[in-house]
Amino acid sequence: MRALSYKSGLMAGIPIFLGYFPVAMAFGLLAKTNGITLGEAIGFSALVFAGASQFMALNLIQSGAVFMEIVIATLLLNFRHFLMSASVASRMETKKKWTLPLVAFGITDETFAVAATAEGKLNPRYLIPLEATAYIGWVSGTACGHIMGAALPEILQKSMGIGLYAMFVAILLPSVRKTVWAGVLAGVAALVHTGLAKMEVLPSGWNIIAAIVLVAGAGAWFITEQEE
Q1: Whole-angstrom Cα distance, residue 33 to residue 31?
Q2: How many structural domains is the chain composed of?
Q3: Is residue 113 part of a domain?
Q4: Are residues 14 and 76 in the same domain?
Q5: What CA–CA distance (Å, rounded) separates 214 from 21?
Q6: DSSP labels for 99-125?
Q7: C-alpha dist (Å) from residue 58 to 28, 40, 76, 162, 201
């Protein structure tokens, strides 16, 4: 089977670029409203490059969570990337081992979906342009959103905090449409988080970590393969 080319990777990445740019603008705008500087926001997107985790981190920063709480919560949310990276690696053919960290860094839900459905043998010539196009869309969108946010009135900037919750709903809805269990688990996680916050047993940042671990573990235990 013919190997995938640089051009095909670039073309496959353009739709992801177009999808990432406006979402990244929302992140940049929200980062601005939370007191994060332009350089910090760009560095955030350039080094983390994980949409849902970045929005969650903003929420944790807003609630006063400490560094390690944010890191652990992000690790748990992004744990699926281990499986996605392993899947891509199993289909890759390359003699240039130094390209593997680059490919691993650029894997997101969207780039993985495109790579997983691509016909042909995966290789860095295809994957790196695909992921780089998505990456540029995310980082440039963050910068544009932050710059545009600076031009908004202060009262409107502060009101943009509601966008965090809207973004999480937008992330959740596609999963709920596939299976009702996604919505059930999200609701239970919200209740557990609220209960922990009311009890004030743990610091605020650890409440979300505990909720993720407890509900995800319970879901894996109770939901059978057939129900999934």
Answers
A1: 5
A2: 2
A3: yes
A4: yes
A5: 34
A6: HHHHHHHT--HHHHHHHHH-SS-B-HH
A7: 11, 12, 16, 12, 23
